[in-house]
Automatic annotation (TrEMBL):
Signal peptide: none annotated. It comes from the Bacteria. Residues 148-234 form the DUF4377 domain. Pfam families: DUF4377, META. It comes from Achromobacter seleniivolatilans. Residues 17-128 form the DUF306 domain. This is META and DUF4377 domain-containing protein.
Amino acid sequence: MPTTTTAPASQLTLPAYYWRLTSAADASGKSIPALQTGIEHQLRLTFSKDALNIRGGCNAQFGGYSFKNGVLHVENLASTMKACDQSLMQLDAEIGQRLKGDLRATLSGDTAEPGLELIAKDGSVLKFVGEPTPETLYGSTGEIMFLEVAAKKAECSHPMIPNYQCLMVRERRYNEAGIQQPTQDKWHPLYQSIEGFEHKDGVRTVLRVKRYDWKNPPADAPSKVYVLDMVVEQDAGRK
């Protein structure tokens, strides 16, 4: 993993991290039962330049936000509409009820272990821990690409691991209408893993990944990193 440098809380930014819920208490300091499910399911907030996303409950919730002078202002949240276990749907309702309007926000810690505390209008206190996004970790903006992963791994020459089995991949391309184009790339070994992807023997997949240039990798690490974004296709019995 890349090293991180210590910086004051004033230099922390919301979009640089995924913010995972670690505690939720009401105005009297008592734990909020419905939000304990969010801690167990690792509910997290993700901030882009001007949009907030909440994941970890039943449905994804999203909306606009602004952050200025210690106040996080959250616009009305929209949501996907699937049905789930009652506890997850209650979690959605509880977190959506508190993350709206103006919240007092405090960033603390440093770039290695940042914290975010939000105090809602009803006095409830939500605490989060920051986990660096890939953009923060690798120091670059990810490039979206599609990789087809063969159903079988193949033995490949790895300088540090004897009899290493590599994923066999080839790049896939789609036109503007989302129609897959004829494959031009040849199968080749990928001498590293794809973060977030677990290969199953006998299952062919097409993945949407983000490829990052690792600005300052350790001596034994690759200069590019692949992070799973979405599984596009998956089927068994094909090579």
